[in-house]
Amino acid sequence: MPYDAHFDIQSLSLHEIGELVAEQKLPPLDQWQPQKTGDSEMEILPDGTWLHQGGVIKRPAMVRAFSRLLYCDDNGKYWLKTPYEQLSIIVSDAPLIAVELTKKGDGVKQRLFFRLNNDEIIAADAKQKIFLKQGKGEDDGDIFHISLPHGLFAKASRAVHFELAELICENENGNMGIWSQNQFFNLGQMA
């Protein structure tokens, strides 16, 4: 059933709204302009664990639903957004984690697909770029990340990070990077 403007969205829980988003029964998140703000009392830990009031959210369906309501504003603050309100959420490191990599094809024509810890499948392409970012731990070096819609990104799990490292190649300009969907994600000059 498509979104009905007369639907009483304010009577729904965050979980119910997240499910409607996943089923594409509501307009896209970026079209919502909520007037009310608050605190979700939620946090996403560096390992992808979601907490509410300090307790672990154990139901994967709830985490999937909430993750579909996530966005990051221009100031780097994270929110759970609904059509009528946005609730702040603490993100300790990355909002999502790329837990699996699937590669189709080779070289310039290869296509890279990632399964995120919320079970979404995304492709690295012109909009969802692969990049390196300093890890949050004191011993962390650069870690692969993938940009996502709504100002979000996914951090590569350790296994996915090493799989991506194996795919680094040099382009015709001597830059090191990774190809996906005819896009070259430049990681810098060769030393």
Describe the structure.
This protein has 3 helices and 15 strands. It is mostly beta strands and 191 residues long. The chain folds into 2 domains: 9-91, duf1285 like domain (duf1285 like fold), CATH 3.10.540; 96-189, duf1285 protein (duf1285 protein fold, Roll). Helix 1 crosses helix 2 (60-67). It is elongated and about 55 Å long.
Short key terms for the protein model shown above:
191 residues, duf1285 like fold, duf1285 protein fold, 2 domains, 6-stranded mixed sheet, 40% strand
Broad shape = elongated
- Secondary structure class reads mainly beta
Distance between the termini: 56 Å
Total count of domains: 2
Helix content: 10-25%
Physical arrangement of strands within the biggest beta sheet? 3-2-1-6-5-4
Order of helices and strands: HEEEHEEEEEEEEEHEEE
User: From the coordinates shown, what is the CATH architecture of the largest domain?
Assistant: Roll
Instruction: Please identify the top-level CATH class of the largest domain.
Output: Mainly Beta
In short:
This is DUF1285 domain-containing protein. 27% of the residues are buried. Helix 1 crosses helix 2.
